[in-house]
Design brief:
Blueprint lengths: L6 H14 L3 E3 L7 H8 L9 H11 L8 H9 L7 H14 L1 E6 L5 E6 L9 H4 L2 E5 L3 E2 L3 E2 L3 E5 L2 E8 L8 H14 L9 E5 L4 E5 L23 H10 L1 H10 L2 E3 L6 E3 L3 H16 L4 E6 L5 H14 L8 E6 L2 H13 L5 E3 L3 H10 L4 E5 L16 E5 L10 H8 L3 E7 L14 H5 L8 E3 L1 H6 L6 E5 L9 H11 L5 H11 L2 H5 L2 H19 L5 E5 L3 H15 L4 E4 L8 H4 L5 H11 L8 E4 L12 E6 L5 H9 L11 E5 L7 H4 L4 H7 L1 E2 L1 H16 L10 H10 L5 H19 L3 H5 L2 H20 L10 H10 L2 H7 L7 H7 L5 H16 L7 H18 L5 H25 L3 H13 L7 H18 L11 H18 L4 H5 L3 H11 L3
Parallel strand pairs: 1-4, 8-9, 13-18, 13-19, 14-16, 14-17, 15-16, 17-18, 20-25, 20-26, 21-23, 21-24, 22-23, 24-25
Antiparallel strand pairs: 2-3, 4-7, 5-6, 7-8, 9-10, 11-12
Length: 991
Amino acid sequence: MVSVPNEGGVERSLLSWLNAVGWETHGQDGSRGANVLDETYNRQSNEVIYWNLLREQVIHINEEISDDNADRFLNSLRRELDYENLLEGNQNFHELLTKGKSFGVENANGGTDTVYVDLVDFDLDDFLESNRFHAVNQFSVSRETTIRPDVTLFVNGIPLVTMELKSVAQDNDYYDAISDLHDYEEDVPRLFIPGLFNVAADTMEFRYGSVGAPEEFYELWNEAPEQYADEDNQMKQAVQALCNPATLIDVLKNFVFFEKRAGGDAKIIPRYTQYYAVNRILDRVREGVHDRGLIWHTQGSGKSFTMLYAAENLLSRSEVARNPQVFIIVDTDKLNSQMRDQLANLSLGQWTEAESIDHLEKLIQEGSSQLVLTTIQKFQDVEPDTQGNDEVIVMSDEAHRFMEADLGSRLKAALPDCSHFGFTGTPVREGEKKKDRNTFDEFSPEGEEYLHRYSVKQGIEDGLILPVYFTLRHEMEWKVSEDAIDEEFEHEFRGMTPEEKREFITDNVTSRTMAELEPRVDRAVEEIDEHYSDKVAPNGWKGMIVTPSRRSAAMYGKRLRERRGEDAVEVLYTSTNDDPDLIQEFHTDPEERDSIVERFKERDEDPSLLVVHNMLLTGFDAPILKTMYLDRNLKDHNLLQAIARTNRPADGKQNGEIVDFQGVFENIDDALDYDAETREYAARDEEELFEDLVDQLGVVMDIFDGIPKDDSQEATNAAVSRISTHPERRKFKQGFRRLQNLYESVAPDGRLISEGIQDRYKWLSRIQVAFERTTSGKEAPEDDMREKTREILNENVDVGEIRDDFPTYKLGEEYLEDAEKLDNPGVKASQVAHATREHLHPRENQNPRYKRLSERVTDIVERWQGGNIGDPEAVEALKSVEAEVLEVEREAEDEGMEAAEFAIYTHLTEETPDAIESEEQAKEVAEEIVSQFQERVDRGYNGWKTNKKTISEIEHILLDVLVVEYDLGHLIRDSDDFVDSVRNYLIQNNG
């Protein structure tokens, strides 16, 4: 029999991969692996740590901990899980994991010594032997609600990685897994207090994100050492490369930052590019063979954090360098300020900023082991040979600019014995002579081009940056009166010889002169205004005009303000009192420019257009920037940096865009003197975007082959029915998401109408609304669509009719009747399944019957989506479950019991019938437990449900009632989960 791929299959595969790299795994046979550890270490279901396992390990790892004081230590550690704020608790516990927990132990004199107790042994020589690494599936935690992540990784009994897995064959993907993880963090934050990171995966994709990370920060791990490389199975490669014990322990110990942010603090863990680049640097310093290297990472890949991770590791790891002084060098005050602010907001220790040339010289002479942040300009008057530390490591940001003037030479003279690593996204290779600038020659040992590289292509494939498309707008019709020009020229310059005239024209009539001609600027402004209004503004994005001179920038600014308003357009360049009035009109001081830039980055604030000259083409990250209007002739690394301004991802942004008024992209081989891959992926012709849209529209429309593409109820029902089960469900969810982004990037375009694309897209939009209505129960799914799609729906889709066809039902008697009105069994099954799950999920811990019914719903849906039962059978099976759900509530009323009473009674009579004398006794016991609970447990404060006093008091109540009053102590002794279950019934039904 062929089985349908499902989450269980993904679990088993993943556990086998972990087993192969050193994890002790349980659950590969399809059983619930967590049960093995639960039974071995006697874990209660509300606990997130295997305390008995951890007890063994802290005794093993720490000489100061023994059987006599281990319990006292663990009791003090339990309190470290009690945090209202998840990230605050996670940061605190991370410090305990990496630095140990302080603990008082009795000394030989009867006094107390304070020691630090390690929870994990980080000794590189024997960490595999001294720590315990467990990977189990279906680790269930019941507190206010029950969660059961698919796979959990424990080190010494502490959960460090929580994994949620989906099967694309069952319509879910890693987006759904991330959503589930967010729910788990909300429902049972205690599990994630010790966590390092989470994993969301499906059968095709692997993503990881730090605890508390939003969806957009769940990333790929697409590089691996040779022993884990597997080109045929990227998911296996990612699991083994990231989650092998050595890498996991390394990331835990050496690659975690906590950053203070205005909108809420964040935990930072490395991208794979950062992790492997840093380790290449550490290896080079450790080995001491070469004293330099080039880190070539594309713009937007996080070079700043790579440098900071490297600095932290160099300063903290004595096996790499004994007592080093580390420099991070930037070449502008703006970059210096950005890095200073970054350092101030991170949990990073030893660092200082060179405030002046004299201060820098003093820091170099002292040679203290710390991180020093400085600009290259401060080296200009530092005396040669002032290096006071024989272990100096220098990291230069924007390294392609460090060969300019004499500053690079001054740095070498001041620090003659340093190791120097260059970081750049746009290396320079100019000319073949020794004096020519060449980043590779400057920073790479002979025979090596770079120490580590992350290309534009990799960045796009990883979703870290977006593709950028260009459109040529450089060819304009010129109407020139040559005779009049000749006459005017002869009149004005009649005193010059013909040779002097030719020389004057050659020197002064340049491309810049042409760019400043009023008729040309007028035509370009008209084009920019129209393009921005039609293609950029409707989706909420912003634009930048890059000009060749301050005069042309002022001309653009003046005209665009006349068209779009004063507040909508700002012009940025430097000016002085000696400049002409036109240029002084747009004068701004540095503080004003900073304010303008910050407002530009905000979606709902003006300006929406920036006109710039010699500004913001480096070190400027604004995801809101979609379109650059390029009227300046840029080449090579300057062009790459300009392109990178538009490629930063943002929610709903499909690509960046460059509208080229100079013809820079007419011959991209000349414009970008890099390898073919960089040229190909740096920027693409916008025609490719339209072709992508056509192809994607065909992919999504093919899902509905054979269904009429009209607005009839029958067609809509048939379409929704088709995408109610796999694999069509998954194909539609993923396919329409991409189609929506592409459509918004292309529109408006006359071909959308002439080629019938808009009509087909409108039909699919209607189906999307109906699909969302049926599967998610949203009151207005069209509200989630982006601006361009919403505009189409408002004009062309009868949303009211869709709402009538696909009502959102609440579970109840009337629902069973209304469900019959849905004619299509596929639609009906999808709606019934969603409503039943929504009703049962929050109630799973309120009554044992709810849990069993929830499991039945899951089984029915999996068999239905797997094709093992048809639509009508699924509907009938689900309706049967619904009827039983309603029966639970009715029966409680008939028996005159409140919810908690009835739950305990049901458990006693249905789960442990042999342990009681009669149903009457079960009623009495349930009534007495609830009565004492209401009398003895204080529920008048936030957090009472998880408070230790509550849990302890419930246990005392159970002892008093079951052991003392009814002689039913065997219920506690013989059933491991009885106390946990009753506790849940009491807490969940008394919220």
